[in-house]
Amino acid sequence: MRKLSPLALAVAASVFVSPSVFSAQDVAVAEQKIEKIQVTGSRIKGVDLEGTQPLVIISADDIKSSGASTIYDLLKDVGQLRGGSGTFSTSESGATSTSTPAGQAAASLRGLGPAATLTLINGRRVAASSFASGTQNFVDINSIPLAAIERIEVLATGASAIYGADAVAGVINYILKKDYQGAEVTASYGNSTASSDEGKYNLNLVFGTELAGGNLTLFADHFDRNDFSAQDRAATRSPLLQSSYSYLPKIAPNIYYFSQVDGLEIATPGCQTPLVTTEFDEQICAYYPNEDDQLDTPFESSSAGFIFDVAVGGLNWTTDFFYSRSKSSSQSSPAPIDQVDGSEGPFADETVLDIFPDAERDNILDQIYIDPFDTVAGRRLFGFQFDARFATPRTVAIESESLRLVSALAGELGNWSWETAVTLSRSESEQTAIAGVYNRYKYHAALAGELCAGGDIASYDADNDSLSCSGAIYNPFLSGDAANDALLALAQEMPTRDGKSTVYGWDARISGDLGEFNGHTIGSAFGVELRREEITDTPSANAQANAANGYLVDVFGFGSSLSAADRSQWAAFAEFYIPLTSTLDLQLAGRYDNYDDFGSTFNPKVAFSWRPVEELVVRASWATSFRAPSLTQAGVKLRTTTARYDCGANQAVADLYCEGDGTERSVDVLELGNPRLQAEESESVSFGFGWSPTQDTTLTVDYWQFKHNRLVDTDMTAVLNAAITDSSLRHCGLVPDGAQGISYDAELCDITDAAGNTIEDDGANLTEILGAWIDYDEPRFNELPLLRDHVLLLQNTGEQNVSGIDVAFDQRFDLAGGTLKLTFDATHYLSFERNRPGSDVIEELAGSWRYPQNIASLGLSWSGDAFFTGVTVYYTSAYEDDISGLRGRELDELDALGVLNADGERDVAAWTTVRANIGYDFANASISLNVDNLFDRDPPKAYGSSRGFDSINHDALGRNYRLLFSYRF
User: Fold this and answer.
1) Residue 852: φ, ψ to 5°
2) pLDDT tens per residue, range 738-766
3) Beta strand segments in 314-363, E
C-alpha cells in the first residue's frame, strides 16, 4: 500500500477554512492514521486517492475551534454547502405541511437540494427523516451527535458509482470517534449580545477505555436552545413594505368586500394597528407575517452511544450505536378563516355588531348587506361576511427519536482485506398541534350559537325550530372576553402526525491488490449490498383530506401528508486503482443497482491524477449518478399543501390567471404520489490541480459541473398551461375522485365561448370564456376564478445544470513561539440553469434570488504552545432581489421608495461578516471564546421576502458568542 504524500494531505485538509493549525508533526501523524482508514470516495483501503478528487476534511480541531454547537452550525460556512435554497435549518421550520419539520435541518451540496446529497456515517447509510421537506426525504443532521464526530469528509462530486443512490451532488461522511483513551467533558454557553435571550448551552462527554481485550468509546451530548423571534430585532420587527399586507387581520376582522354596498372592504372598530390604504382606496385593518415570524425554533436534543472495537480470533469486530432524542416546537402565521365549504368570507350573525356603540353599529349596518346563510346544524340565519384569521399562530410540537446500529466483522484473506456488516437505522417523529388549530365545523357552529358546552355540535329540529342545546354565539369581533374566548377554545383541535423511517442493510466488501501493470500494483475493491427501506407518515383523521369529505380537512389551514411505501434493493460494485505510470494514476469504478419498484441503473466513474512533480497534482473525473424517487414521492397517498404558479414564466398563463402580470400566486393543491416515477439522473465532471511548492503552502483550483435531469416535482404552472388545450384537466367545482387537474368556480360552467363551449368542453376558447366571465360576474380581479384543491401528480419535470470553480489557498508561517496560518476559500458559480416552472425555457439562476455567484472566506490564525486566536471573514456576493413575483401595489411602493434601478430591478446587497476566536490550552483543560458577526451586521434587505431578508443565505441574529470550557481526565 502506498503512503499518502504530504501534498495529498494538504490538498484534502486545506479546503475548510478555520483557525486551526497543522504542523509537520501533525502531517506525519495523519499519514500513519490515513494508511489504516478508507477515504471517502473510494472503497479501496490505503491508496492515495485524495489527489484524484477534491475532498474537504473538517478535523476534530476544526470542529473545536469553529464555535459550532450542532452539525448544521458547523456545515453552514463550508463553501460547497452555501448558496441556493437546498441547505436549510430550523429557521425554515413551521407548522404547515409546506414547512421544514420543526427542529430538523438538512445539508445540500452545490444548491442541488438535500435529496441530492448522500449522508453517511462511517461510510454507511442513515435513515431519512420520516417527515419529508415537501416530498423530498432528507437526513436530519440535527439527529447526528456532534460529540461523537472525529471528522467530516465532504466529497462534492457525483459518487453513485461508489455509493449508489442520492450521491448526485456528492457525499458527506461523518466519521465517528474510535479507539479513544481517557475522558473529556466539554461545556459551552452561547447567546446574542442583544437584549433578547437566544441563549444556548451544550454539554458533552467522551470516554474511552480498554475493555475485554478491545476498546470501548462512549459519548453523550445534550444541547438546549431558546427561540428567536422576528420581533426581537429592529430589522425584522416591521415589514419593509406597507403594501405587503394581508386583508385578513387577526384581532379586529374586516367586513368582506362582497358584503359591502359599494363592493369595498371596510375595517371595523378595534384594529390595534394604523389602518392601511389599499389599491382600491379602502381603509382596512391589515396583517403582516412579521408579527408571528419565528426565525429560529426552541430546540432541545440529547444523544448517547458507543463504539466497541475488539479483535476476536484473528478477526476485528466493530459495533457502533447511537441514540438521539430531540424536542422542538414551531409556528406559522395564524390560519385564515374560511366558510365551511372552503370559500372566502365566513358569515357572522348580525347581532355580533351589538358590541359596538349604537352610532358605530348603525354606520356599519348602513354600508353592508344583511343576507341569509345556512348554519352547520341546518338553520337559516341572517348576517354578513367578514375577513379574518385566528389570533393564535398555528403551533406544533415535535419529538423525534433516531437510532443507528452497525455491527461489522473484518479480517484478512491472504493479501486481501474483507469486511461485512449489518445496519439498522431508524428515525421516528411524533407531531402534535398545540395551539392555533381549530375545527371548521365547530367554529362555524359557534358563530351560529350551535356549539354545545361539551364541544359537540347541536342538532336542529326543524319541526319545532329548536336546537338540542343552547349555546352562546361566538363573536369574532370581541377580543379579551373570557367567556367568548372559552367558546372559541371548544373548537380547538390537536391533530397529530406519526412517522417512521427505517433502513435495514447488509454489505460485504473485499479490497486488495489485483496484480501489476507496468511494474505498479493495481488496487481493487469489490462488494455487494442489500438494503430495505420503509417509511410511513400518518396524520390523524382530522388532518386528512379525501374525496368523501370534499377534500376539506376538518381543521382550518393545516395540511398533511398521508404516505406509506417500502422498497428492496440490491447492488454490486467494483473499483480499480491503476497506476498507469509512475506519475499517472487511473481510478475506475462501476456500480449496478436494482430496485424492486422503478428498475435498475448502472453508474460508472473515471478519474485521473497526474503528478509531473512531487509538488503538483493534476486531477480530473467524470461520473454518472442517480437519485431514486424518494419513498414519499412514490408512496404519498394524498398530500394537502399549497403550490405556487409563476405567471412570469408563461404569458398565456399570466393572461388567464394573473391579469397579464408576471406575478406569483399561491393556491391550495392536493399532491399525489407516482409509482411510475423514473430515477433522477446526473452527470458530473471535475478537473483541477493542487500545488504545494512547500509543505507550508498549498493552492487548489477545481472546475466542477453537474447536469441533473428528470427532476421530480409538481408544477402548477405547467398544469395551468397544459389545461389551456387539454379539457381533461379542467373541472367546474372540485376535481372528481381519480382525476387530475384544475378546479374552477362551479359557476364558470354557466359561461360559454363564442362557439357555445363551456370550460370543460374540448376545443373551448379560454380567452373568450374569460371575457364572458368578466361581463357576467364583474369580478374584483379580471382572471379565471380558481376554486381550491387542484390535483397534481408528481412527475419528472425538468433539469438543472450547474458549474463553478472552487479555489482554496493555505499558507503557514513558522515563527518564534508559534505558527501563523493564512487561509482563503472561494466558490464561483459560472452557471446555474434550471427550467422555469411551466415552461421549456431554461433560466439562469446564478446571481438571481438566493443564488449568489461568489462565496468566499478569508482566515488568519495564530497558534502557540498554549495560546491560540484567529479571525475569519465570510463573504456572500450580491444577487437579484425576488421582486418579480410581487403584486403591482408592492412594485409601485418600491418605485416610490427609489430602490429600483433603471430596469425596474434591485439587488440584495453583498454581505460580509467576521468571526473571531481566542483560547488557551492548559495541561488538562482548554477555554475558548468564539464571536460570530463581530461587528453586528444586519442582514441585507430583501423586499421579495416576507421576512425582509434571505434567511437561507443571511442571518438576522446579529453578534453572538460561544464560551467553551473543556477538561481532560
Assistant:
1) -60, 145
2) 899 999 999 999 999 999 999 999 999 99
3) 315-332, 347-349
